[in-house]
Protein 1
Amino acid sequence: MNLNAGTVYLVDDDPSMCKALVRLVESQKLKARAFASASDFLDHGAPNHPACLVLDIQLPGLNGLDLQTELARQNIDLPIIFITGHGDVRTSVRAMKQGAVDFLLKPFNPQDLAGVIHQAIARDLRRQEISSERRELERRLQTLTPREREVFDRVIRGS
């Protein structure tokens, strides 16, 4: 599993925070791509490689929670790590219930964030590997003759 193949997408409207996050990510030998708004990130399109999203809650326009909801609506399964200086229990619970990997309050320990980023990239890499294996199995099932498919179905059902 090559975690260095991952990209960390950063969405924060604070240029100094983006710069610091890019430095942190690159120090972990990962690629970083920063966006100043949720709409800029959405315009970029869904990644087709292992990735995660480090996302601020408070953003101009579409906020971080709304972006999380929009990604789910578009079936974009991307591990999300929220960072915020304005967190509360209700917001963090909502983010986690919608599948966030973690919710960190600013100022956070950079090594804590780095650890969570590696977990998120590993999670996305596993998800993509499983998806690839599933596609391969489905492709192989399509090559079975009707009789082979019948036998396969009986074996699977245990009858």
Protein 2
Amino acid sequence: MIVNTVVDKKAAVMVHTVTGEITIEKIKSSYAESITHPDFQKDMNVIWDVRDADASNFDSHEVIRLARYFETQLKNRVKYKVAVIVSRDLEYELSRTYQVAAADLPTQIEIFINLEDARKWLSGADGI
């Protein structure tokens, strides 16, 4: 799994573009790297673009483990939004499982199929 992270300072959004086979360990290490990024802000919104990632070996148990991990990591973080961009049913279902499992986190999570809609939602330009 390769994660390319870009910070859009103007929009206060950190974009993670994922390729290759998704692993829980790499997601954890990508999160650790992102919070040490010099442009990171605690209230910064996040996009996880997994349209070119392979989640075929990732299952709902892994997703729940990941949600429990983030419960410990995000205890003191301010509220922010996370947009997950998917292109296949498998990634949608896994993202939806995470969305439900992470309901108590200080994040609002939505799932999209394109970057433009995700950015609109993060900026509040979608009317929500």
Protein 3
Amino acid sequence: MTPHTFFFAGKAAPAYAFCQLTIKLINNVAGTSIAIRLLAAALKILFLPEYNVSLAERLIPASDVSEQISTAGYEASVPAI
């Protein structure tokens, strides 16, 4: 298996319980992948808290944008013609 690194970034206001649970899930999956040695060699998962423009300026050039999943209806997207 080719090694992959996935990074997630964001922040959730105290009132957004679902967002907080999602962040917790990401961190738990990351912890589990580290605990399993065979998986840890092939998969790295990172969660970067306090997402902002400065962090985005550093992350976006280092990411493979072609692998990003567009969720139509939740972000600006152009329909295929």
Protein 4
Amino acid sequence: MTTRHTLADFDYDLPAELIAQAPASDRRGSRLLYVAPDRLDDLRFPDLPSLLERGDLIVFNDTRVINARVRGRKPTGGAVEMLIERITGPATALVHLKVSHPPRIGGTIDLADGALATVEARDGRFFALRFDGIDELDRWLERHGEVPLPPYITHAPDASDAERYQTVYARHRGAVAAPTAGLHFDPPMLDALARLGVEQAYVTLHVGAGTFQPVQANTLAEHRMHAERYAIPASTVDAVAAARRRGGRVIAVGTTSLRALEASADEGGAIAAGEAQTSLFITPGYRFRVVDRLLTNFHLPKSTLLMLVSAFAGFERIRHAYGHAIERRYRFMSYGDAMLLERASD
């Protein structure tokens, strides 16, 4: 019998001091909670290879975070903070605006280096802006934007964040939040997995700022997930098919990798190469078609990501694992510790 969950079912008490404000001293320095059907194992991240086998396939999200936070002023002098949600052209973007009185269509925002942003349209919480006085928005952001640290990290971004809030394999620019499960990997870890015979493949899902938007609807079916762009290369389609043929397991590094794989799959679990958009909202009761194991960090109460991991590993098992992690003082969120989840049996 399927239980109908409400938003309150995904609430829990998270001590503020457990929200990591800085990464571990080195990328592999975090802890790793292994969540199996019949046990919880407290490990260190360097133990990950011991949980994998030759022939397994591990899938990473190779999106690259852009300097998506920009500060400016209205002509009246009021401060404006914008968070780029998506670059839509050489000098256009969809953005969130943090401002006392949002500008109307045609309104302008003064930016660094003489640049000017003009509001061309509004769609719900997004503003469509045109940027004038710049060469190319992507390059302008590199010079004048800030690392878009999540709202629960309270310090201003510095040079350390520019390095550590980015995976070592980041390639394709477009994310406004890091695929944080991948932050634990460094080149020696990737080499160790390769020597073990664990195959590696990549998808690209550009994480949007909507990943931090709270769920407002008490009934989960009423929540509308934000859309994110993803791309799956033919080489990854081939790698997943080959892993299936040899009996290997597909391990997604992060909820973003999982969502891209699952969104592209047909009923039989075959994934398709190409680019698309997904607003897939995974809650308990979802039938997973591709991913066998999930490496992820710990997520906020009442978040869509907590709902996803509860669907993947089982609602009660995740409740127990999170209680264990809080008791054992694991570090939560983007700069925190990791967990490896086994998929619950259907």
